[in-house]
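forwarding from the other thread:

> can someone predict this with octanoyl-coenzyme A?

sure thing
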Amino acid sequence: MTDYETILVETRGRVGWITLNRPEALNALNSQVMRDIVAAASVFDADEAIGAIVVTGSERAFAAGADIKEMESKSGLEMVMDDHFGQWSRFAEVRTPVIAAVSGYALGGGCELAMMCDIILAADTAKFGQPEINLGVIPGMGGSQRLIRAVGYYKAAELILTGRMMDATEAERSGLVSRVVPAADLLAEAEKTAATIASKSLPSLYAAKAALDTAMETPLAEGLRFEKHVFAALFDTADQKEGMAAFREKRAAEFEGR
Ligand code: CO8
């Protein structure tokens, strides 16, 4: 497997693991981290033997944001011309379901990276926030848009305007976090959830993720039309026939990803 500078990459069964590995900077997201994560996620996404991806960090930090030291001296023109961080959109577009397993800080770009994933599992030590306002800027990797969709306008506005952090309990109550687990269980829970997802039919996983993404972006009527077409299309898969036959025959389905 390719060597990456800033992440560790591993395959366990049908689950691809990406572990951020810049402990000296609390996994701050510099351009190399972005290139590494996007490349690793793309490799997993192209591999039909992978049915789910987990992105995680260390106990202390999922990621403490974009790398402030890398950005500090840039001009606005450079940010535009380099399309600094432009590749993150490719990560958000992977078709394979992605779980963020968050322990410790998920701040700024770290929180935004988690929000590019489909499920956020949080250790009880997790802390989420968009502290960019404290640096004289605003969220730049989707935070001002995705956080509102996750927690509603007023909670998002308070977090973004004050820059305060919220703990895992508040994040779960607010709808940002799918589930909170004891820190010691985080990776095992992520593995279990990812393996459950990865055992499903790959075409139906792609379809479900596309339908969920569509719901974030379109008015209801358009989303319902999209869902109806994708639902119907799945009836041309062998896995739909297998899934429904298995139900009728009272046995576990064996999906082939076809
Ligand atoms: N960037 C660079 N280095 C960082 C970052 C960061 N975001 N966060 C931590 N580090 C470094 C520290 O500088 C320190 O390095 P050193 O030992 O060399 O001084 C090391 O990591 C450990 O950090 P601390 O000593 O600060 O650890 P503490 O436990 O005292 O504090 C905190 C932990 C509270 C997480 C603190 O480090 C902190 O506040 N970090 C910054 C959080 C932040 O502001 N994040 C938002 C960054 S801006 C952003 O994410 C914008 C995203 C959009 C970009 C879009 C571009 C197009």
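The longest strand covers residues 7-12. thats all i got for now
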